[in-house]
Design goal:
The complex is a heterodimer of chains A (about 260) and B (about 280). With about 260 residues, chain A is of the alpha/beta class. Chain A is about 30% helix and about 25% strand. Chain A has eight helices and eleven strands. In chain A, strand 8 (about 210-215) and strand 9 form a beta hairpin. Chain A is globular, with a radius of gyration of 18 Å. The two termini of chain A are about 35 Å apart. By secondary structure, chain B is an all-alpha fold. In chain B, helix 1 (about 5-30) crosses helix 9 (about 170-210) and helix 9 (about 170-210) crosses helix 11 (about 240-260). Chain B has a single domain, classed as ABC transporter involved in vitamin B12 uptake, BtuC. The chains are: A alpha/beta (about 260), B mainly alpha (about 280).
Chain lengths: ~260, ~280
């Protein structure tokens, strides 16, 4: 479905995320996230686990530069892109898949110019990479959840992102699309990009290189085998965790309330 | 039909076509951003400014500009009280301003021009009014062209917009500033109650019919101009108030569009407030 010989993006070469003793809060409100310290190098995919209100969104907003660090630091090397949950965007807005993909070129397009022909070609290539070359003219809201997610990933590719922050990329996505998205993410990782994947899926977190557990503070960071222990999961999710298979499988019970 | 033979009507016709096109195009973004209520509020809240200008014999354009600025400042101030929320702040400010304007306008010493302020005086369009409408309309049009991409990103995906180089809060503020300019330009001809019809109705019709944002904007501008034309002709032929017949023509076009549209264009995921539903 995608060209395996795609050249690695230049920005991906020296990408990385380094977070040191970070805490952050919204205005005068109580600290939303504290004591986060981790580093992810190019080529690493990090699952960010935690309950709603655990600080996943706060961490992303600090990394994006939209929220200042109260203490500590968060350094990002490479262009950073945010891939939101698709149902958070306006599905009734009349834009095509290609229109949305080309939004990735807005930051480098002067207001008095059209999107450059080179960027339009990049946009088509990005849609082709995520397997949606035939849907470039389809209205975004008419695509399936998984297809929309892939369009938003294509947009991050047009941004030439070395660091991708993905917010629940598998929420509301069917099995087939999930497989497609997983293989795209594997490709991006192999190109040396950094992926931070906010998720509720403990099982799926096992397939990534690192797991970061957040529950207002950092509970654990490391390889899945070391991190996804019963003690850490209980520390992360409290009573919301359900253990299956004598602790080998765990399911986090989440109520999808869409608030920060 | 000798409507074009009179200079009075020629000016009125040009004025209403320019205003219709400007308000129509702007309206698409206001509706897409769900800012119908802000549009209505801003138009209504400048009444005190208009009345004071009328009292002093100053140009209505100046009064409108002053009224809009004061209203915007008051709304921003009232919205700081996070316990009540922005809609309540807007409602309180607008009602206060509108009431104040009415009290001023109905005072015994004031010349009876309240009707003109509320419903406009298209046939009283002066050459200066026409020039002002041309300049302000061109400003709004150019700004909409220049801001097309940021507006699209802010409407479509406000969460990711900052990482795309777009700040949604700034974009919305800029759009409200354009709205203020359009309302200031339109108030002399259409009045501060009826200007809303040209902002909302053509845009609402175009959103139902247009398949891309660009087409929606072009269509809304055309429908706004058409509403102005039809309304003015009807008012001259039937001898009815010009502003009101322009507003009714805009609404009529919207009804026709609603009947023609294959299905309501609004999909899931875009909840509207009651105010918007009633207003749009």
């Amino acid at each position: 479905m995608s060209s395996p010989a795609a050249p690695p993006a230049p920005a991906a070469a020296a990408s990385g995320v380094r977070v040191q003793g970070l805490s952050a809060s919204y205005g005068a409100a109580a600290i939303a996230l504290r004591d986060v310290t981790f580093a992810a190098a190019g080529g690493q995919a990090v699952a960010v686990l935690g309950p709603n209100g655990g600080g996943k969104t706060t961490l992303f907003r600090v990394l994006l530069g939209e929220l200042p660090a109260a203490t500590g630091s968060a350094a990002v090397r490479g262009t950073i892109a945010y891939v939101p949950q698709t149902e958070r965007s306006r599905l009734d807005f009349p834009v095509s898949a290609l229109d949305v993909t080309l939004m990735g070129a807005y930051a480098r397009t002067p207001w008095y110019r059209r999107v450059a022909a080179r960027d339009r070609a990049l946009g088509r290539a990005a849609l082709d990479r995520v397997g949606l070359a035939d849907s470039s003219g389809t209205r975004f809201g008419a695509l399936s959840g998984g297809q929309r997610q892939r369009v938003l990933i294509a947009r991050a590719l047009v941004q030439d992102a070395g660091v991708l922050l993905l917010d629940e990329p598998f929420a509301g996505v069917d099995r087939t699309s999930e497989e497609a998205i997983l293989s795209i993410l594997d490709e991006l990782r192999a190109e040396g990009r950094v992926l931070l994947i906010a998720t509720h899926d403990v099982e799926q977190a096992r397939r990534w290189d690192r797991v970061l557990c957040l529950a207002g503070t950092q509970i654990a960071y490391g390889p899945p085998a070391d991190t996804l222990t019963n003690a850490v999961l209980e520390g992360t999710y409290g009573a919301e965790i359900v253990m299956l298979d004598c602790g080998h499988r765990a399911v986090a019970i989440q109520h999808h309330s869409h608030s920060h | 039909m000798d409507i074009l033979s009179s200079g009075l009507l020629q000016r009125a016709l040009l004025e209403v076509v320019i205003l219709g096109a400007t308000c129509g195009a702007l309206g698409v973004w206001l509706l897409q951003l769900h800012h119908t209520y802000a549009a209505e509020s801003l138009a209504h809240a400048m009444l005190p400014g208009l009345v004071i200008a009328a009292l002093l014999g100053a140009p209505l354009l100046l009064g409108a500009a002053g009224g809009v600025l004061v209203a915007a400042a008051l709304i921003a101030l009232a919205a700081r009280d996070t316990r009540v929320g922005a809609e309540v702040a807007v409602g309180v400010t607008v009602t206060t301003a509108f009431g104040l304007g009415a009290v001023l306008a109905l005072a015994p010493d004031v010349p009876a021009r309240l009707g003109e302020l509320l419903f406009g005086d298209l046939l009283g369009t002066s050459t200066a009014d026409l020039v002002a409408a041309c300049v302000l309309g061109a400003c709004v049009g150019l700004a909409l062209c220049a801001g097309h991409r940021p507006l699209a990103a802010a409407v479509f995906d406000p969460l990711a917009a900052p990482s795309l180089g777009v700040r949604p809060a700034r974009v919305e503020l800029a759009l409200l500033a354009l709205l203020a300019i359009a309302v200031v330009a339109a108030v002399q001809g259409l009045g501060n109650l009826l200007v809303l019809a040209l902002i909302v109705a053509p845009a609402a019709a175009a959103i139902r019919l247009g398949q891309t944002v660009g087409r929606q904007i072009a269509l809304a501008a055309a429908l706004g101009a058409l509403a102005g034309l039809l309304g003015l002709v009807a008012s001259a032929e039937l001898d009815i108030a010009a502003g009101a017949s322009v507003a009714l023509a805009a609404i009529a076009l919207w009804v026709i569009a609603a009947l023609l549209a294959p299905k309501p264009a609004r999909a899931a995921g875009a909840p509207r407030s009651l105010v918007e539903t009633l207003g749009g």
